[in-house]
Amino acid sequence: MLKQIEGSRAVAEAVALCRPEVICAYPITPQTHIVEGLGEMVKTGELEGCEFINVESEFAALSVAIGASAAGARSYTATASQGLLFMAEAVYNASGLGLPIVMTIGNRAIGAPINIWNDQSDSMALRDAGWIQLFAETNQEAADLHVQAFKLAEALSCPVMVCVDGFILTHAYERVEIPTQAQVDAFLPPFEPRQVLDPAEPVSIGAMVGPEAFFEVRFLQHYKHFEALRLIPELAAEFAAVFGREAGGLCRSYRTENAETIVVALGSVNGTIKDVIDGMRDDGYPIGALTISSYRPFPLDEVKSALAHAKRVVVVEKCLSVGAGGIVSADVRKALAGTGIVTHTAVAGLGGRPIPSSSLRTLFERASLGALETVHFLDLNWEIVNREIARMKGQRRSGPTAENILRDLGLGAVTV
Amino acid sequence: MFQVRIHGRGGQGVVTSAELLSVAAFAEGRNAQAFPSFGSERMGAPVIAYCRIDDKEIRLREPVAVPDAVVIADPTLLHQVDLFNGLKPDGYIVVNSSRTPEQLGIAEFTNAFPAGHVCCVPATEIALEHIGKPLPNAALLGALAALTGRLRIESVVAAIEDRFSGKVAAGNAAAARACFAAVSSTATSEKTASLA
Fold first, then answer.
1. pLDDT tens digits for B40-54?
2. What is the set of domains in chain A, with CATH numbers?
3. Where would you tag: which of A93, A175, A195, A346 has the fewest CB atoms within 10 A of its CB?
4. What does pTM read for this prediction?
5. Bridge partners (DSSP) listed for residue A262
């Protein structure tokens, strides 16, 4: 049914259609509306056969999901930002144990300074934790990816994060086709666990493993991700056949025919990028875009072949590896090693800084002229940055940076 | 594409207002995207919400920088925040106030807009009368529909009834209709005046 609906509600309805048996919830902005919606559906009986567990922290949320999944229940939770960091130990446990939990991340910046707005630093911080990470471009895709995520997770016995840009998607009302229960049932079979805690057939899960076997266990996680590279496109094709629309896959090209410049990005910013590319194509620029939907596993071969004919690539990313630069662009550079294609990093949108189409247009025009630096910080206020650098050089006790900058901007930081 | 920016304060229902607007547009078969820009999440803090309406898929995810219409739910923001920033020269302005643009000190600015593109409507008073609470959000959508002609009042009412039920729905729908009627009659008299 086509609905005009909040992104979080669309995700909640899609998750409910997947017949989860245990949902562990701890609220954190901007993810809260998702588990609130699911809690309501459990309470009204709209979602049957599901235990909704309010826990005391994010660490507990994922730990309970781990226990439930090990006992053979289809398990789901959601979090964001500091919440994801707080459960970090359990994030590694879920993947290390091979438990097919699905977790939504309402992507949000990480403090300090405290910030509730969107970027993708949280998912990126856990990119090497062994979870599959799928990024949604629209709320339709956010809903659809959850249906695929349960099937993918359970096929591989590997947990999946579905990453949804906080506020920009989670709080956006737009049209979403919510599938029918029959469609989802036709696509997603009941959970058949590979391992299960059963008093009738006791096993232990989570044994201590020494140097003689740990390496092999870890390698087999890596192997599962290679399996995922094969399975993700298969599931996307199967999904399209059942639901009549495209969603997911490894990566998707947009107007890259004869493109000399190709823009690479994850998540909702791809919508704005596509609009900018249409405008530049109208003006004769040979430019296109590549949306990466599966960030882990990272589809090195597919990204390479999608970009192979470009002269240059601009990776627009909502994250920063402090001291190193781009995170997504490091993976893209790995894919393009030896090709001679120039790769630029454009760090953008940190802490919810808007990414306007006008700024992207200027950025892409500069790239097209070969005038873009290797690492660019989109719309960074250099005047403010330089003022703080001068302050730090000028006096030992220059004070806290965030508060100094708020004062420089006239935004009323607390003064002592 | 028709883009609306709504300014208010936390607790006034500004975000709900943009969401309802998108649902009303959806009811007319159009594509719509509503989203908030929260400041600090607290009562009384300035809040902005946006709504885009188009006949094709909306992919753009940036905040609305060049609105076709600005709705101001709290006129005390008028001299604190740059509410009209980027507003198109032939855009629309709806202010929740029982005072006139002259009394609000914005006439010099608003007089530059075409006749019938600016209205002040006492939405809070109308809401108090119909809902019993000073929640002007739904009422202001009635005013916006009347001023711009972009949306039928029935669609606004349908969005309200989709979101709320019982007395709350009835009160908000009545407030929206009352604002729609108030602005429609003003617009008619203005047009008559300009014809004369």
1. 666 778 899 999 999
2. 2-243 (3.40.50.970), 251-377 (3.40.50.920), 383-416 (no CATH)
3. A195
4. 0.96
5. A288, A313
